[in-house]
Give the backbone structure.
Amino acid sequence: MNVQPTEILLIEDNPDDVELTLRALRGRNIANNVKVVGDGALALEYLWPGGTSKAPAGGYPKLVLLDLKLPRIDGLEVLRRLKSSEETRQIPVVVLTSSQEESDMVESYRLGVNSYVVKPVDFAKFTQSVSDLGLYWLLLNKVPG
Amino acid sequence: MVQDAEGRIVESNPTARAILGLDAATLTGRTSDDPEWQTVWSDGKPARGEDLPSTIARTTGEPVRGVVIGVRHPSGTVRWLRVSASPLRDAASDEVLGAVVSFSDVTEARRGEQALLDSRNISDVRESQESAAKYRGLLEAAPDAMVVVDGAGEIVLLNAQAERQFGYRRDELVGQQVKVIIPEGFAERLIADDLRSTADALLQQIGMGIELFGRREDGTEFPIEIMLSPLESAEGILITAAIRDISARKAAEEALRVALGNFQDLVDADIVGVFFARQDGRVFYANDYFLDLLGYTREELEHGEVDWRAMTPPEWLQLTDKALDELREQGSSKPFEKEYMRRDGSRVPVFLADTRLAGPGANIAAFVLDISERKRGEDELLALNAELEGRVKTRTAALEAANREMEAFSYSVSHDLRAPLRSIDAFSQILLREHAAGLDPEARRVLDIVVHNAQHMGQLIDDLLTLSRIGRKNLDRTPVDMEPLVRSVVEELQAAQPGRTVEFDIGPLASAFGDAGLLRQVWVNLFDNAVKFTGPVQLAKVEVRCEPGPRECRFTVRDNGVGFDPRYSDKLFQPFQRLHQTSEFEGTGIGLAIVARIVRRLGGEVWADGAPGEGATFGFSLPASQEAT
């Protein structure tokens, strides 16, 4: 099997949003290898296979796009785990959500999110936002190590 | 003393022995005639045995009364005795067995008389110019009115004070009956009857203050007090009366009596409970109000069964003792509220004031008011308050629950409604862009409508969420400088719509009190509105004005746009109420509702004026300071 390193981990349960997000990212040729998981539990299983601190099969992603409202384990919990584990702390996490709730935003920043983006209803704006942040975090942002 | 038939003393009482200065053993067996006694008459002549009262009583069987005799005391001084003697008879034979002799020591009284009248003979007073002058001198020196009366009640002498007091000249009174100036009570006291002589009658009055009425020359009467003292004389007994006008004292007594009467009336009126008591609790006086209030009878009070300390419930004792301390230190206590236990055990709330009674024992006078009615009112008020508080709590809890539901609802609206909308919009646009070739013009037109409505609904959802958030948001309340705020909003607005030219005229704006973030929203919405409705106008103009006041500031935004029908002005501030068709002006109908909600939460009011084609003015007021909120 062709094992290319995972560039983006997209944690999103809405298949429409998954498709639209992938379209936006591909449109700018940003990510060719996006791993998509549909809920929080699957996300944790991907990042910590079998509950160990062994690296994922596709390697740690360079960027995590995270929806908040997820089945089973919600996005804030995933965020908390990502930012409190030694091996994942450096990975930029962007919350990409429909929620305009201030409390969600406040809590996300408290947990150490790198960016918080409210998905616009308007498709053009949505495409713009997603591709911009992909570009920024993958290509322009420099991380240590 | 009792003497036998021979005049020998057989019995004596302690008073007799004390006066004579002899013990019983020495007295027994002596006679009245004993030379040791050196008996003399009041004129100093030796008194012989056969003339002594006891001898006369024994020998004649007649009583003798009030004879003054000088007797030598063992100390060597002379004691003046007023002696009376009565025969002692055998009950069966009526034979005289002896005599009972009684006497009193009048040495002191006689000394006073002697000072007044150094005379052996009353004729000296009447006839001797020298003696009369001397006696008058003494009379005149007396502070009181003095009148000398003989045994027949005729005035013999008087002093200037007496003249003044009764309004007569001396010569008008001398020789007149004393009844002229003292109509009642004086002359009667002088009259001898079968049982007593004038001297004897008078003897009983000596030194006593007798209250009578005097009558002046003009007929008016006034209260007097007289002090009588007898003057022995060869012609009989004269009486010296010292007469004092006691009008002032009587008036004072009357005033006191009236005052006491008033006090008693007050106590008896039973509008307030009054009791007098000892500090240890025993109540020795109480009026009916108090007794009725506490359920005791007057008999129980008289039997000492009413005890304020026993009636005081234990939890009130400390407060009561504090009041008593205050009473001891300051003479009275500040009125306070306490409870008493009635005789039947029930409680009664009272308002109580204590004061210390004059005199020994530091007793208490207390005034007690039944405040059951007032307490009942207070209790009802408290119950009512508690009920209200309970209701407020219930209502608050209900509101909080509703708020929580509302939040959950907003959350799901924000999250769940927007996602499908986004799909509708996005996939429609993908069709339009990527599959345009396969679509005929009608299909493209319909898809445009779908996209447009999805976006409109997205805006509606956003506005609705803003509106609901305003209701839940915690407000800042700080002074907000309005002018820079307004200018920055206008700049942003103009930058966002480069195609539109709107002339803004911003007058001097006072600062107001509120939440800066929300106030920005107010201005944004009002200006959006103004810009939107001036769209069809050639020269769009917006005026921003302020009318400052001590309590509130009034701000207005006036445009020269299309205006509105004032009949519907109250609908403007309700959500989703639009006065224009969507085809004319885009909008969700929530902008002004948001303005109204923000302003009202900040303690202000909103209003709108306008007419079709004549522009519109939107206004709002805000508190000018924290105190005004």
Summary: The interface with chain B takes residues 14, 16-17, 20, 23, 69, 97-102, 119-124, 126 of chain A (CB under 8 Å).
